[in-house]
Each structure stands twice: as structure tokens, then as C-alpha cells.
Amino acid sequence: MSLVSIITVVKNDAAALQETLESVRKQSYSDIEMIVVDGGSDDLTLDVIHSYDELIDSWVSEVDEGIYDAMNKGVTMATGDWLHFLNAGDVYLHTQSLEKLLNCQSNSQLMVGNVMLGANQGQIVNYRCFERAGLLGTICHQAILFRASVFQERLYDTRFGLSADFDLLVELYLDNRSTFADYCDVDFVLYQGDGLSDQNARLALEERKMILDQRLKGAHRIANLLNVNRQLLKLKSA
Q: CA torsion, points 158, 111, 49, 12, in degrees to nearest 10?
């Protein structure tokens, strides 16, 4: 069995962390390494961490420089074959979610499942067409299992405080499109959709435009920029 490192980032959200840890505890897949990266909470978050001693393999609680700095800490702590970022409040949709996605036996850098968006009345989003030009930036990070080798030569670029996950996906896609990702039709995670990039959607999209300008060329760049511009226009008209 492949070891899966589940990395949960949290700060001052004890109830949400408990939901996530309960979801992990109920997974049928047993070869799990549970990592919690806490940003120096002063509520009951540390009490929750201590109450799940039997589940959590390693954890740290200290001030960080933002969510991607915290995620990078989790990466350096991980020893698994696959990494999954499941932040506080996000949960697996079913007890067999991990097991089913891992059964897809991907040879790519990423395995992508389906995600339910909590902010959209339980809408299930699948990424069957994620490779189509213009849709690269729509993959929810919680829908992805990352092969550990992805992070051997890179971490999240913390210069992008809201879109470093998007930057990583673009970099991986350009490095080797043929082994970028495999989609598997598994309902994987409930994403609550109230993270930093959701709270600051316009700034996140501006960062994405900057990333696309730097990394992409030609038709694919144009298609992705158009996609980002459409999202910006929606925000402005809302």
C-alpha cells in the first residue's frame, strides 16, 4: 500500500479541525500519515490536536507567514508516497474516498477526483475536462492527490499569497503535460469554500493573471487569461 500524507493547516478553528480529523479517522484506507500545521492558535485548537494523539503522527504550532508557508512546512514533515492537503473544515465525502481514488493507479504526478462545493448547495464538480485550454486554473486543490516527488525540487512560491497553488499547477503542467494528471471519477472531498482565495477573490485572480503572463505563451495563455478575465468581470458586476 502507498503511504498517504494528509496535511491539515489550521489557525484558531478548533471545531473545523475536529470535523476534518473525524473524517480522516473514518477512512477505510489505513496507510495514512496525519500531519497538522497550526499557525499558533490561542483557542481550543491545541486541545483538539492533543485529543487526537492516536491519529496525528506529527504536528507543529507556531506563527507562520501565511497559508502556503504552513503548507510548505507540512510538505517538509511528510514522508508519504502521496500528499493530500485537507484543510480545517474540509472533509472526505465518503469513508472510502481515499481508497477509491488510490485504486485508480495513476502514473502521473497528480490524481484528481471530484469535489463538492459547500458554498454552492452541495454541487459536485468533476474535472473530466481539466486538460482543456482555459480550465487549468479551475481545479480545486482539495481534489488533488500529489505524488511526493512533485515536491522534491519545489515548494509553494510564497510570493503569491493567494494563488501559489495555481502557480504550482501551471508549473507542473508545463514541465510535462503527458504525465501532469489523471482524472478519476470518484466523489472525493467536501470543500467548504471559505479559504483566503475565496475571501479575496479579486486579488487572487489578479495574481493568476500575473502567473499566466510569466509562465504561459501562445493560445493556451490566451485561453487561460480569457477565463480569468471572465471571472473578474463576474466579480465586478456582482
A: 40
- How far apart are alpha carbons 22 and 28 in whole angstroms? 12
Q: In the structure grid, which three cell numbers stand for residue 124, read together?
A: 459536485
CATH topology of domain 4-237: Spore Coat Polysaccharide Biosynthesis Protein SpsA; Chain A (3.90.550)
pLDDT confidence of residue 206: 83
Distance of CA 64 to CAs 24, 41, 201, 205, Å?
24, 11, 22, 23
Model pTM greater than 0.85?
A: yes
- pLDDT 10s digits, 166-216: 899 888 888 887 788 888 999 999 998 655 555 577 788 788 878 877 876
